[in-house]
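User: Is it possible to get a 3D structure for a protein together with its bound compound? The compound here is magnesium ion. I've pasted both below.
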Amino acid sequence: MSLTWSAKDHKNSNPSAGTGQKRQRNDAGNKATVVLGAQWGDEGKGKVVDLLATEADVVCRCQGGNNAGHTVVVDGKEYDFHLLPSGIINPKSISLIGNGVVIHLPGLFEEGDKNDKKGLKGWEKRLIVSDRAHIVFDFHQVVDGLQETERQAQEGKNIGTTKKGIGPAYSSKASRTGLRVCDLLGDFKDFSTRFKNLVHQYQSMYPSLTVDVEDQLKKLKDYAERLRPMVRDGVYYMYEALHGPPKKILVEGANAALLDIDFGTYPFVTSSNCTVGGACTGLGIPPLNIGDVFGVAKAYTTRVGIGAFPTEQLNAVGELLQTRGHEVGVTTGRKRRCGWLDLVIVRYAHMINGFTAIALTKLDILDVLDEIKVGVAYKLNGKRIPHFPANMDVLQKVEVEYETFPGWKTDTSAARKWNDLPAKAQNYIRFIENHIGVPSRSKFKFFMIF
Ligand code: IMO
Ligand code: MG
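Assistant: Yes, that's possible. Here is the predicted structure of the complex:
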């Protein structure tokens, strides 16, 4: 997939992270630009972030863990990122893992070392980790697997998690028994006691769970020393970044709106807030310091794992999107489910996030289709419903109303500007803009990734 964006539109839209612009700061401080997934993940957020990251001073992750995943190709080398902010690739920027992220330390160092071997040198010096971030332990990952087995046995279906321990780690956080980076770096005796208590708590819930506590503690002690130089008070660091000299701050969302623990298709969601509020709570950024919020949406829809998917195409169209779009999960290697673009969900994501721009990705995957459909409304018992249903049983039952467009049947993979696109493709994009509730391109500052 090739990519570009309309630099003109983008510059106008984004004073804090625009290209080649004079850096400006208002009295409230610098503003962070936030990039968020507008569907069920894998929209190509990484591509957008990578573009912006080349200019950014600080690139931050605010939520999730190593359940996220994207590949970046630089100078013919492929790097895989799951937990590290992709700004780590830019030797001039600092990457920050915020308090809202859950960190699996073996995973973090494995990812760094693997990419180091490919040429990502000095990453440890460019990474800052919040002392308030919670730790994902190996047993959290085992428990993730046990919970999936239990769900399958009890309900005949699981969530299809990434088994990275995300749910159990956020559960520990919410139940106030979790352990944070500051605990690991504090008194190790105290940390060990709390670690053992946490293990016991899980073992009482899952008697089959075996944990070699001493071995785990030994490893954690080693990780602590490797991590120590990177750890800072994340709140203070962010405050300084926002109120010091002008800086371009970029927040890289992981997962996506429909996987959000509050707004997503619960219970088939992840365990963090992947919508805009997560940028505030996961980094200590006041709402006033949020600048542009870029929503990333694929020109069709994909979903990994279980859960309702109203525009899913279990037919030749779905297969074509899957193969042409290489829709295979970076984290789990699973084939992604595919379907038509669903504007009900993108609009819903916009209601929550207040996107200032939408980046539309992988439009060229649609190049060969004779006709292209877009879901525009949901009907229940023959009647349109104005909202996105909270209840999954209801969502399973909705009937999707489609708008059908003639395919442009032209290779758009080399298109770099709006004018490079065939009229039918422009038409498709215009329709999307209008439907999401955007009066005009310039006002909404729409930009595209082809
Ligand atoms: P990126 O950042 C796609 C999905 C999982 C599963 C559910 C819960 O690459 O877009 P979890 O392991 O988080 O408890 O799994 O959420 N999921 C994602 N799907 N892309 C992601 O991230 C995802 N992160 C979580 O497949 O259905
Ligand atoms: Mg992914």
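The longest strand covers residues 371-380. Residues 138-155 form the longest helix (18 residues).
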